[in-house]
Specification:
The complex is a heterodimer. Chain A is an all-alpha fold. Chain A is 47% helix and 2% strand. The longest helix of chain B is centred in the N-terminal third of the chain and has 33 residues. In chain B, a hairpin with a 4-residue loop joins strand 6 and strand 7. The chains are: A mainly alpha, B alpha+beta. Chain B: Pfam families: COX2, COX2_TM.
Amino acid sequence: MLHLTKGRVGCLLSRRVVLALTNRGARMSSHDHHEVSDKVDMSQPMYWDRLDTPLPDRPWKDVLDSTDKSLKQKEKGPWTALSKEEKIALYRLKFNHTYPEMKRPSHEWKTVIGGMFIVFGITGLVVLWQCHYVYPPQPHTFGEEWQAKQVQRMLDMQINPIEGFSAQWDYKNKQWK
Amino acid sequence: MAHPSQLGFQDAASPVMEELLHFHDHALMIVLLISTLVLYIIVAMVSTKLTNKYILDSQEIEIVWTVLPAVILILIALPSLRILYLMDEINDPHLTIKAMGHQWYWSYEYTDYEDLGFDSYMVPTQDLVPGQFRLLETDHRMVVPVESPIRVLVSAEDVLHSWAVPSLGVKMDAVPGRLNQTAFIASRPGVFYGQCSEICGANHSFMPIVVEAVPLEHFEKWSTMMLEDA
């Protein structure tokens, strides 16, 4: 396996020489210049309407006109001084949708179910065409008479007599149980 | 044989197959229980009104759902290994039969006492007598005495085949140049059907196996008759 051939010994020795005669900086000059750049988060704050994470990083309306700004100023005071409309306006500045608006039903399911049924229908047509034009005729053993004789023979041979086929036949009264 | 559209196993005709049926019931019950639990959890997770769904790091449930699957696996492995070793026991057979696979028929040799050998070809569909089973009937059946341990040595003369009879719980690959041993006891008299279970060419689906278990006197009469015919 790993026996010391001349070539291998030569390789190992030359490696030791190189390690002794050069420094780390020369050998690994492309690595680790001891200057790690500062980690800067350059992402922009996002807005989202999500049921499971309620408070987004930024308010809905960032750019406020003078009316909005004066309302925000009023918000800094006691909230009992705010009227109902002002509170709603403040909410609408902060958020896009209310919870009921987020949870509104979308009627997408109708498109999905409809599309599914259309695909089933097309598949059914393909299968019908295939049964008519592609499949060869069934073997003669599928005929009614043959199947009846086959069932009788299976009962006579007591095929699966414990819990299976023949177990369902009442041999005394000659009928299915 | 299976009746049309049968989904489950055929009734057992040997003690080993009975054990396998019970083990299958056991393992399937475990599988159904786990699947029901998982389905319930999926439905519960999807339909919850709760919004805080990202609780992480809970030691207790992690321990439960590591230990419980390990216990369940042990509960499956123990009966399985029991049956495995049961199948491997020295069984002191009363009769040894060699089943040789060819393209595309089986041949059986009963050489314990006399030299009896015969081929077993499938009966073609057009030659069936009304009531016979398509693709399952053969011209000669492998007859064995009932309630006797039988050793079957399975091999092949050309390519890989596999000698399988589901109701006896037997399947053994027929490898050319190799003798594989399997054994069974037919617990009840009857006719048991099987089909070649290793792809072996164009007529792989058309080389069935039929084992007929009969009382010993009938077996003796049959083997005498077969020797005379040969």
